[in-house]
């Protein structure tokens, strides 16, 4: 028979997987990805704090985050498109292309980490502009935490490479890892 502590840990993992599926479904329009991540983070924050939550609370958070969060989604996809263009230039063999390519990839990683950390810090009524500015500072000032977020994102990439359906629940695990990084940074 499993100990209650073990069952509780499985419960957290199961909730992360469920939230990953909710995030995936909510972010199908693509521009709602930051809002879906923020709503998922809010749900996990409530769930681990023994507060009332569920799908209705997730949807309410999603609506609240999407009010201005869709603009963040558009900006993120535009920035990632610029990185893709940058990598196309690198493949064309232009002089200095490799250096520009490396800088572009590092900028994309920094952007993803900043957005994930902003989503983890989101609360209803928060300003996305101030969240992104603060998370950009934390991304630079907390390199160990940022590396942990990158590793969480690598889990999603590995899951998607292994089996595409595993990427959806892994989003919840990556959001939980980002929440843990934010709590770690706040504790210091």
TrEMBL record:
Top-rank taxon: Bacteria
Keyword field: Membrane, Transmembrane, Transmembrane helix
Transmembrane segments: 12-37, 70-94, 100-122, 143-164
Name assigned to this protein: DUF624 domain-containing protein
Organism: Streptomyces lateritius
Lineage summary: Bacteria, Bacillati, Actinomycetota, Actinomycetes, Kitasatosporales
């Amino acid at each position: 028979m499993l100990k209650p502590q073990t069952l509780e840990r499985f419960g957290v993992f199961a909730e992360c997987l469920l939230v990953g599926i909710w995030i995936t479904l909510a972010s199908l329009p693509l521009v709602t990805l930051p809002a879906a991540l923020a709503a998922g983070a809010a749900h996990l924050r409530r769930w681990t704090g023994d507060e009332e939550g569920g799908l209705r609370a997730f949807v309410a958070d999603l609506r609240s985050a999407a009010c201005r969060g869709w603009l963040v989604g558009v900006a993120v996809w535009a920035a990632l498109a610029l990185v893709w263009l940058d990598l196309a230039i690198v493949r064309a063999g232009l002089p200095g292309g490799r250096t520009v390519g490396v800088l572009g990839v590092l900028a994309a990683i920094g952007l993803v980490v900043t957005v994930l950390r902003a989503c983890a810090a989101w609360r209803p009524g928060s300003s996305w502009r101030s969240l992104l500015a603060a998370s950009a500072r934390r991304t630079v000032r907390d390199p160990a935490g940022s590396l942990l977020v990158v590793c969480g994102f690598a889990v999603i990439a590995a899951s998607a490479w292994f089996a595409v359906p595993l990427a959806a629940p892994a989003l919840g695990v990556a959001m939980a890892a980002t929440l843990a990084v934010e709590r770690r940074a706040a504790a210091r």
